[in-house]
Amino acid sequence: MSTSFISRRTAFGIAGGLSAAVALSACSGSGGGKAPTKIDGLTYVRPASLPLDEFEGVHLSKTPGIAPAYEKWPAAAKASQQGAPGTGGPLKTLGPTWGTTPPAVDNNPWAQKVEQELNVKWTAGIGADYDQVAPAVLASGDLPDLMFIEYTSNAAMLQALQQGAFADLSPYLAGDKAKEYPNIAKLPAYAWDASARFRKTWIVPNTLSRIHQADVWRTDWVKAVGHDGADPKNVEEFTQLLTDIKNKKPGKSDGYPITTLDRGIQIAREMFRAPTNWREEGGKFTHMIETDEFKQALQWAANCWKAGLFNPDAITLNWSKEREMFTAGRAFMTLHKIVGLFGSGKDGVASKIQEVEPTAAVNTFIVPGATAQGPNLVGTSSGFWGGAAINAKHQKDENKMKELLRILDYWVAPFGTKEFLLMRFGVEGRQFTFGAPGQIVTTTSQALLDEMNLNTITAPAYFYFPADPQKGREVQQIMEKRAEHYLPDPTWNLSSAVFMQKMGPLQNIVDDAIRGIITGKNPLSDWDETIKRWKSAGGDASRADFEKEFASAK
Amino acid sequence: MFATSSRRRKRIFARRAPQRPAWAEAPGPITTTLKVITLCALVVVMLYPMVYVVAVSFATNRGLASGSMFPTDFSLAAYQTIFASAVIPRSLFVSVMVTTLGTIASVFFTTTLAYGLTRSSDVPGTRTCVYLIFFTMLFTAGTIPTYLLVKELNLLDTLPSLVAPILISGFNLVVIRNFFMEIPQELLDSARIDGASEWGVFTRLVLPLSKAPIAVISLFYAVGYWNNFFNAMLYIQNTSNWPIQLVLNQYVLQGNPMIQTAPNPMLAPPPTQSVQMAVLVVATLPILILYPFAQRHFTKGVLTGAIKG
Question: B71 CA to chain A: closest CA distance, Å?
């Protein structure tokens, strides 16, 4: 019987403290902002960040927080590691599945190739509904060697971190020590800062671009109603555009330019520059719902409801239904992952719409700002979504820790290396082949691609669209343009267990009030009462948590 | 006119024998017509979602986007997508095996336990056992304690973890126990006098007389095992041991807005609505095929075990 790292009582404590599986909405991306540097005499030292290799077809963005874009595979891809990282022993991993179910290692030729390259005996675990499975695994104490953890939205994983379930990677990665693992050292600084907690580095982050979603509309409808298709210059012009969509019903439009209440308030928040979740001034935190900007956004949305710009079913329609309607060519706009919008040709939403309506034109747009400062766009993130953590039981074995870090170094190898090709595109001749020089042609067999869904514990961020080499740079440019118009969330690298546990009920208070005010059931003056209820239900306690941790970072 | 209508009323009432109430009479043509119309409307309301699900599962994107009541174009793409997955054949095998063996094991342990619990007069502690079983019907340990128990029994990542935690259902036990208690004791005593062992009495008398309720609980168990994906999700990380419901669940989860808004670039695009409907069809079809064969026993057995006692 293995010794659990936590006692039964603590296990039940974690279980008792679990909130229901809560996923972040795209509008409340977490992470990022100012990195804590010194607390209680302890210094957080960021792992060294080395520049990525440059070769033909690489576009390294000058905008902080945007991933590199690639047009082609380098002619001379080389191995980034000398020799296999493993020592032939067992390796147990646990990660989520982002796509359809992969076959287990025994029936998975791709995984067997990875085993061979890593020189390990790999047992790859998959958690089907990770928010349910991970807390149970944590409570059991029987953790794998490497485990994907996401502690910005899951209170159980944050608690496990605090209680020592995972190894502190700072002794191995702080500062120049990270250079011993050249691929890990090429992960961007913003991802390290965002993923640090309690002044330590705990994971090899699963890196993202800071911008990952965009407002998307039907450009053909915009032009059909007499606008030029460019981004609206001010709120009045945008409101007039929506009114014209309603009155003229271009294409298969249902005549309601705003499909859901969420869409309406999200667009309004952006225009009136409500902060991204929280605002920090002089160490004091103000939530976005407490700001004048948010109140102005509510007023605009309520006016739109009165003008009939909302779908009558907006109260019951959700984001999933909105996306379905957008893909079916009935909705005017939505918020969408930029990568998923274009996909790899047929995968992308834009292609799916054109299957139904060949003349449809879909593109991203930037809402106008209500003031000269411009909008504050949503669809941002801290720069990471979880990452790979090492089981704390290995902490005392330096050789084992280094072996596992070498394995993770292999896992996050950047574009242009042989390790990346295997981990992200598969086995040559099975999951992909090389077409024209520098172009990867992926297989159309979903079953073969599913084999690689065991690689989910961590990854580097990049843009590369095999079916459309120029698309990577195009997506990067969209993100760079949107990056000019966002305010970082000051809580991105802070933690509040209270906020995570209360997030659901607090959001319900806000959602109910927004629904009532936008639909005209309640007056805008009721919003102050909502704020009071929000504060007493956990808002103030969350604020206190964040302010305390922020202050200790100074 | 009043006199005419009162004569008519007398004729109507004169048809019915004085001691028969109105509702016992055969319905008239108007009543019959209204009943037929109402029942047909109910059938349409109940059937429409099921037919829609099947129709959408065979639809193309264009058909779905048309917004018509039923997509009319035909495509097998959704089923091809699902069955193209390498894990589907294995997961189907796992589901069939777990359902079959689990049902057999559950019926065996449920019937033997229920028979033992009918012997309250000569087996001490039966009443306490019954109360403990009732307790488990009202209160459950919860996800984490059950997970810890399965872990301590070394069942994690094994197929028995899909059977052991739900081997005996308190509800099914009560149903079958009640039925056993209705079997005349004189019949069983006469068998014992003739020299039959307790096992012989159970297998040669009690079980043959209990075919209806056993069919009922078998169906309950089979449906439960077939549909259960939560235990697999929690206890099994090796995808080779995932049942079909869990594999198909991934298609549905991908379309989950919570998953889609998570900022992860590796996320696959959500499947089309037709794929999700095809998932529903594949997941429910085996039970739909099995149910008519068990229906005869089902209606008889449910009433027998549940009402009496």
Answer: 13
